[in-house]
Design brief:
It is built from 10 helices and 13 strands. The chain has about 325 residues and is an alpha/beta fold. The longest helix is centred in the middle third of the chain and has 17 residues.
């Protein structure tokens, strides 16, 4: 019985030690927005089910083994005949990472409505939260329809729907992104976006207007990520701002997914909005301070290391 259900494309990640065109070595790992969130929630003690597809190859086996080892339910991860997608990270300059995708025709991009419906039907009871992102919506018609089908099933079951806008401009045209994300955001109970992503998810001329349009619809919470400046959560009649946690930044990749995992964890634990946001920025800080998409995600026991309300900083 999952607390959270999420779906998307998990990729094999190659992290090059230098410039790829010059050759050299690379570390092999796993990446993917929804997979990162799933691992983050599992480390915080929540039951998570992940739906997706990987190839019949060693990279697909790496994805499955990693998710399973981290405590994520993979019973609805299908092995497809297409290959597992690959993402390559190259640290080109200090603070500048160049990313190359190799996902055209990948197993994950073949996610469809049928496997979403089968996954939902297999759950012994409805998950409390469905988490989806703009990345999967951008992968093509099949994955986009799968996300919409999952939202429809969740709405019928009374499951809270969380959308992380997570816009990837290299994956789709901005006009299509705006139309799609605005439609999907209108179906979400919780919308998470960075400052520059919010205009893609809601009409309006400024942040207050866009937030108001979402809160006047279905959303009960709108969370705006501000990077090193912290984050804001809006609910009906309330705005809460928190600064980022002070850490030495090493790698910002995956920080947004960690943030979402922390916020959803607080939601599951019944924390008030301020404490949810505090847990979110704390989880984001853990990942920023470590190289990798998800490797730095904290366990629940580690949360007090950065001084959460339910613990004191270790000195």
């Amino acid at each position: 019985m999952p607390d959270v259900w999420t779906l998307g494309e998990a990729l094999a990640a190659l992290r090059a030690d230098g410039q790829v065109r010059l050759g050299g070595t690379a570390r092999v790992s796993v990446a993917g927005a929804e997979a990162n969130v799933a691992i983050g929630l599992a480390r915080l003690g929540h039951d998570v089910a992940y739906t997706g597809a990987v190839g019949p190859d060693q990279l697909g086996e790496l994805v499955r083994r990693t998710l399973q080892a981290e405590g994520v339910g993979i019973g609805t991860v299908r092995i497809d005949r297409a290959p597992t997608g690959i993402i390559v990270f190259e640290q080109r300059l200090a603070g500048v990472v160049r990313v190359d995708y190799h996902r055209l025709g990948s197993a994950g991009s073949r996610l469809g409505v049928a496997e979403v419906e089968n996954a939902f039907a297999a759950f012994p009871s409805q998950p409390r939260i469905l988490h989806v992102t703009g990345v999967t919506l951008a992968l093509g018609a099949g994955p986009a329809q799968a996300v919409r089908a999952a939202i429809g099933l969740a709405r019928t079951a009374g499951t809270l729907v969380c959308l992380d806008v997570n816009h990837r401009s290299r994956l789709w045209d901005e006009d299509l992104a705006r139309r799609t994300l605005t439609e999907v955001a209108a179906e979400a109970d919780l919308v998470v976006a960075s400052e520059d992503e919010l205009p893609l998810a809601a009409p309006g001329t400024d942040e207050p207007g866009r937030v108001r349009s979402l809160l006047d619809g279905r959303a009960g919470q709108v969370v705006v990520k501000r990077g090193s400046a912290g984050a804001t959560v809006y609910t009906e009649g309330e705005r809460i701002d928190l600064p980022a946690k002070p850490v030495v930044a090493v790698d910002s990749i995956g920080a947004g997914d960690a943030f979402v995992a922390g916020y959803l964890s607080g939601q599951l634990d019944g924390l008030p909005p301020r404490d949810r946001l505090d847990r979110a920025v704390t989880c984001g800080a853990f990942v920023v301070a470590v190289s990798g998409d998800w490797e730095g995600l904290p366990t629940r026991a580690e949360l007090p290391l950065l001084g959460l309300p339910d613990g004191t900083a270790v000195r």
